[in-house]
Structures are given as structure tokens and as C-alpha cells.
Amino acid sequence: MVLIDLDGTLIDSVPDLAFCVDAMMDELGRPRHGEAAVRNWVGNGVERLVRRALVGQLDGEPPEADYERAYPLFLELYRANTSNRSRLYPGVREGLDFLKGAGYPLGCVTNKAAQFTEPLLADLGIRRYFSLVVSGDSLPHKKPHPLPLRHAADYFGADPHQALMIGDSISDVTAARAAGFTIICVSYGYNHGRDIREAKPDGVIDSLAELEDWLVETSATADRR
Ligand SMILES: O=C(O)COP(=O)(O)O
Ligand SMILES: [Mg+2]
User: Fold this and answer.
1) Which family does the record claim for this protein (predicted)?
2) Is the pLDDT of residue 104 over 70?
């Protein structure tokens, strides 16, 4: 079984997210942040993104009244701008075709809310690759909690020690470790401005098109043991 993260791994969704954060800030009469700042704030769900935009940094909490005003504005904007500016990363289609062709059960596990995950996957033409989609609000906990990964393993009847997670951020690595999965990360995603190699995933690839070689090499190494 292979589970794949969405934002920063399959899809560069920041152009839409940043557009909506900036439009929300305009509506609130506050200064825009721009795409580079938003790139570092994605990965823990849209609620956290809105809170980060209001405080202007990764950590910290805005006044609750500000959040209550901003969050519905963001939801309305993002509903109308879920996929307009978002793009598949190079190599994604090749990687998915390889995994599907090789017969791996495929799941998408994201912290993005389901109301956005489903249209985004469909609009970019990759929904059909996944037999299971677990969104940030599908279960009581999201990544870095291992629950979404364990849920997917149960769904597919997969042994976690034979399971692979592919992601871009520390949340993916932490969730995969806690669930007993192997974790490969992409080098190009959003990891809050940090190099994902610091989190020590089992492998780092520059494109999902490298998956075939990575899987062949690791199974050859395992066979030699
Ligand atoms: O922060 C989000 O909304 C989603 O992030 P993820 O797809 O990388 O889990
Ligand atoms: Mg991600």
C-alpha cells in the first residue's frame, strides 16, 4: 500500500491558497502576506493557515474574534478558488501511473478539509488513482497523528511495516514513524521553510517519477540482507 500527501507533494496548491489569504486580508483591511510567506504556513489544515495569516507567523494564536471573522471569509474565497491556479508537480502523473500499473493500493492522506480535497483532486485529473482519500476532517485526528495512516492501513488490510507514505513535511514523517510506515519525502514541497532532510525520512526524491527506481533499489537491498 502506498499513501500520498496532497499539498506540496502531488499539487502545488499555494498559488490558490495565497490568492485567498491575500484576498481575505484585503477584506479585513489588513496588509497582504504574499505567496512566499503562505508557502511556509501550509500543511496543518486551513484553520491553522488562517490563524497563521492573522498573526503573520507560523506560531501563535490570533484573538478569537479576529479568527471568527476571518475564517468564513477564507472558506468562501477558497471554495471559489480551489484549483484555478494550482498545478500538478512535474513527474506526478508518471509516478502515479507507475504505482497504479504495479498494482499498489493507493490512498491520498491530507490535512486539507474534504470539501476542498475532493474538487482539487478531481479538477487536476488525479482523483481516479486513489481508492481511498482521507482528509483533514475525515477523522478525529489529522497528521502528525498516526490515525489517518492507520485508518488507511486498516481499510486496505495492509501491514504497516509493508506500507509506504510519501509526503513533503515533518507532519508526514512524524505520522509515518508513529504508524510504523516507511516514509519517502519529496525535496520540493512545503516544510515550513526547513529542509525535509533534517527530519530524516527513509529517502528523499526530487520527483515522483523517481519512485520506480527507488522501490526497485530498496527491494534489491532488502533481498540482499
Ligand atoms: O494544510 C493543508 O491544508 C493540507 O496539507 P497536506 O495536504 O500537505 O496535508
Ligand atoms: Mg504536504
Assistant:
1) Belongs to the HAD-like hydrolase superfamily. CbbY/CbbZ/Gph/YieH family.
2) yes
**Minimum-distance ligand 1 atom for the alpha carbon of 143:** 9
Grid cell digits, residue 5: 500527501
Separation of 173 CA from ligand 2 center, angstroms? 11
Question: In order of start, what are the domains of the chain with their CATH numbers?
Answer: 2-12+86-224 (3.40.50.1000), 14-80 (1.10.150.240)
Distance from residue 175's CA to the centre of ligand 2 (Å)? 12
Residues near ion ligand 2 (Cβ under 5 Å): 5, 7-8, 43, 168-169
Output the CA angle 89-196-165, nearest 5 degrees: 65
Using a pLDDT cut of 90, give the percent of the chain over it: 95
This model of the complex carries an ipTM of: 0.96
